[in-house]
Amino acid sequence: MANLYVKAVPPTDLNRNTEWFTYPGVWTTYILILFFSWLVVHSVFGCSPGMAWTIVHLCHFLVTYQFFHWKKGTPFAEDQGIYNRLTWWEQIDSGKQLTRNRKFLTVVPVVLYLIASHTTDYQHPMLFFNTLAVFVLVVAKFPHMHKVRIFGINADHTCMVSDYWFPSKARTVNHIGPRSCNDSAFWGSRCC
Predict the structure, then answer these.
(1) Domain locations in the chain?
(2) Alpha carbon 156 to chain centroid distance?
């Protein structure tokens, strides 16, 4: 009687926003997308291979920084807002640090940097842009940077009551319990 049920392995990630990255073949697809992006840039723009790698590296920086380290939350409503204050990087692998996926996503910009820098013969303007891009991406991926907002950039701030509602002075609203700027029951549609 005890063998009637199947012993299934639980999924590694219950977050629908990040579970796709645990599927087999995602790493290979990621690398192929980068390589085919290089082919497209190299053939369409007719630039040197080094310049094409630099363009791919900088585009990779812009896209991954925006979607991995800047944009917060998930596009799915069933998570009931538990990921609203977390970036995709903070959500991946349920927030565990130094996992295989995180290491892979840290190594990719470094390898792109090495390829782009070497193929441009370490020329000054390209080397500067490549170094800046890899520095920002790798520092953003450090375990010590988990949930850290430098200088409060992209942080969840407390709302200020503006001069629009109280023309005499702007002041911080003190209320019981934490409220976010997006709490429409408290603020209505106009907030921050």
Answers:
(1) 13-152, 157-192
(2) 16
Q: Is the separation of the CB atoms in 129 and 112 below 8 Å? A: no
Secondary element (H or E) of residue 186: helix 184-187
Long-range contacts formed by 14-17: CB under 8 A, 24+ apart: 14/94, 15/74, 15/79, 15/83, 15/91, 15/94, 16/74, 16/76, 16/78, 16/79, 17/74, 17/75, 17/76, 17/79, 17/83, 17/88, 17/91
- C-alpha closest to that of 129 among 115, 150, 113: 113
d(CA 183, CA 85): 14
User: Which amino acid is located at 47 in the chain?
Assistant: C
Cα 127 from Cα 97, distance rounded (Å): 30
pLDDT in tens, the chain (192 residues): 567 666 666 666 678 889 889 888 999 999 999 999 999 999 999 999 999 999 999 999 999 999 999 999 998 888 788 899 999 999 999 899 999 999 999 999 999 999 999 999 999 999 999 999 999 999 999 999 998 888 788 887 644 433 333 444 444 444 444 444 444 333 333 333
* Collapsed DSSP state (helix, strand, coil) of residue 151: helix
